[in-house]
Amino acid sequence: MFLDRDGTTFRTRVHRDVRIPTADPAVTLSGDLYRPVTGEAVPALVTVQPYRKDFLAGSAYAGPARWFAERGYASLVVDHRGTGASDGQRRAEFDRGEGDDALAAIDWIAAQRWCTGAVGAWGVSYAANTTLRVAGLRPAPLRAAVAIAHGLDAGRDSIHPDGARGDLHALANRGSSMLLQQLLPPLAGYGTADAQHRWRTRLRTQRPMVLDYARSPADDPVWAERAIDGSRITVPVLCAGGWRDSFTHAVIDAFERIRGPKRLVMGPWGHVMPQDSAHHPVAFLELMAQWWDHWLRGVPNDAMAAPPVVLHLDGPRPRWRGYAHWPPPGRSTVLAADGDALVPAAPDTARRPPAPHVPDPSVGTLRGLAGLGLGEACPPLDQHDDDLRSLCATGAPLEADLLLAGRPQVLVRLAPDEHGRIVPPLRLVARLCGVDPGGRSTLITAGTLRPGSEAEQTIPLRPVHHRVPAGTRLRVALGTADFPRLTPLCGEVAVHVAGLRLVLPVGDEHAGTDVDLPPADATARPAAAAPSWRVERDHTRGATTVSVASEVPHTVSADGHVYRLTSRLRAHLPGGAPQAVVTSATQTAQVWLETGERIFASASVRCTQDALRAHGVVRIGALTLFEATWTAELTREGEGLVRQP
Questions:
Q1: Element at 182 (helix H, strand E)
Q2: Can you tell me the mean pLDDT for 491-504?
Q3: Taking the complete model, does pTM exceed 0.70, yes or no?
Q4: Dist. CA 596–CA 462, nearest whole Å
Q5: Ordered domains of the chain (ranges, CATH)
Q6: Which DSSP helix (H) or strand (E) runs through 141?
Q7: Are 471 and 398 in contact (CB under 8 A)?
Q8: Which residue among 201, 289, 576, 624 has the highest number of C-beta atoms inside a 10 angstrom radius?
Q9: Share of residues in the chain with pLDDT > 90 (%)
């Protein structure tokens, strides 16, 4: 660590709304620059993100940026083109061109006289995707990267989860959130002519990002075009993710595909920075600083010391374990369904097929809402009621602890119909649960598959590193629903299964070593406002409703403005009528500007099986400055999404 002459960390000077040129002379990007006060040249760190550095999600980078500046790194937080105080029109989300703007930011800061020319890129979630994208472009100044809670293929990882239609996150929640940010004015230099021009032009010409999602279904070639080729990433990358996050598989997939020096840290976290988690938080900024010191300054340290894979072990006796590679060493064991029992598989042994399953579209409500921008607020609940609505096979109590380490799989053999044809369901969803002696069913992992026409189907489940205690019964629960994460299917018929097998990656108990990761300072962890999350079942009418309400109380921006945000999400499934499902979200903001003006903005998205409707309004005081409604046609999963001209 570089220290100033007083033997303490560096004093920091913040330069807001630094204008960064791009390849387009008419477009500059807005960056907030945190510089250590020193006469020496320093390395630099860059984060490029779409969540507006003047509002809540984007401003979350201010703390880490200042922390790194105090330790001798110039830190630059940049708004994506067309967002916040940056110029231009927003590209389609996850577009390849986003890497060009990140490239412009890296080249700009590397060329400053106070920079050594060595640059690191990092980010969480969307900013992690941008980090990996620019790493694949291999700019000369980029020496290392850190990617947290995201991967390489946004189409399957986020927008269309597992290749299925998921209205709640991508369309309703994310769509309304991004529309709200689009409607609000830049707070940096709000009163200037440039800021007003950016805002008014955006209101007049820019359409909501959610329309792009609606028009590009999971099988649209555009998502393959927007995916990142991990084999092109040769700079050192530290990948980090959480077992409680929806991007567990995405982070590990990225780690496996990256070709350069790399490390993997998987903790018990949700969709949050590792130091802010409520579950075994670690001093992750210190781990990042070690990474930067090694690759940007050439400081000899343990950044690349063995083990390269560090995993938190969930279950009884939680701890950190280190391995030489992913997946950890071990073997596979196979269990097979014998009726509703799960027994050790043996070759050439006849098994009773499970009973036919009539799909229940409400299954999934107890799985929780990971990866919805809600941090860790909506964890999985007791799966018992969802298990009752699924096709299940349950094993005998384990005689000893079982270490699961890797990717479990569920193998399904479909039975032919009365005409001898294999008619696969539109979707298969499998959950692996552990049932304790008291009957509580705890979710271990899950996976989704859009089946092909073959009789044999393999459902990959999310990676795990989990110890199942002795006395627990393993349970496989199979169905076609994961509501509200996935939009319910229409016209489903009974699923006939001829055979069901569970392939478990059993870890070697003697492999790996215990690892000590520095715990986070609990006093420094911000207190997060817990959203109100409700799952309601009307047993008389059979209706199911999932709702989430959250609020960000009055917050002061870096520019001295005050804002307040509210969010309401709702997914309603009428009993026995998946065709009538409605998923909606409304996001509102009130901004009290230093000029004395009060701005109100509201963005809402409502999805049915057949249509999407987005609405936005902006008011200054009692004057309605802007109001518009946008629509797009949707078709039901299995038929594709109808494109608008």
A1: helix 174-183
A2: 90
A3: yes
A4: 51
A5: 12-165+217-323 (3.40.50.1820), 167-215+530-645 (no CATH), 330-511 (2.60.120.260)
A6: none
A7: yes
A8: 289
A9: 81
- Sorted by sequence, the CB contacts under 8 Å of residue 587 that are 6+ apart come out as 176, 177, 179, 180, 565, 566, 567, 568, 602, 603, 604
Give residue for tokens 């250590």.
36
Identity (one letter) of the amino acid at 152? L
CB neighbour burial string for 236-265, b if at least 16 within 10 angstroms, e if fewer: bbbbbbbbbbbbbbbbbbbbebbeebbbbb
Could you tell me the CA-to-CA distances from 241 to 162, 182, 282, 366 in Å, in that order?
18, 29, 12, 22
- How far is CA 604 from each of CA 287, 484, 627, rounded to the nearest angstrom? 39, 18, 12
What's the whole-number average pLDDT of the chain?
92
Asked if residues 441 and 435 have their Cβ atoms less than 8 Å apart, the reply is yes
Confidence of residue 2 (pLDDT cuts 50, 70, 90): very low
Distance CA 194, CA 197 (A): 5
Residue by residue, DSSP assigns 364-401 as: TGGG--TTSS-TTSS-----HHHHHTSEEEEEPPPSS-
Looking up tokens 């390395």 gives 43
Pairing of strands 12-21, 28-36: antiparallel
| pLDDT tier at 643, thresholds 50, 70, 90 | very low
Residue 411's SS3 state is strand
Closest CA to 34 of 3, 62, 60: 62
CA separation for the pair 390, 408 (Å, rounded):
19
Structure tokens at 613: 């409707």
C-alpha angle 507/451/570, rounded to 5°? 90
Return the sign of the alpha-carbon dihedral for residues 435, 439, 443, 446: positive
Hey, what are 436's tokens? 């304790």
606-641 pLDDT, tens digit per residue, is 999 999 999 999 999 999 999 999 999 998 887 643
Token couple for 235: 């700079």
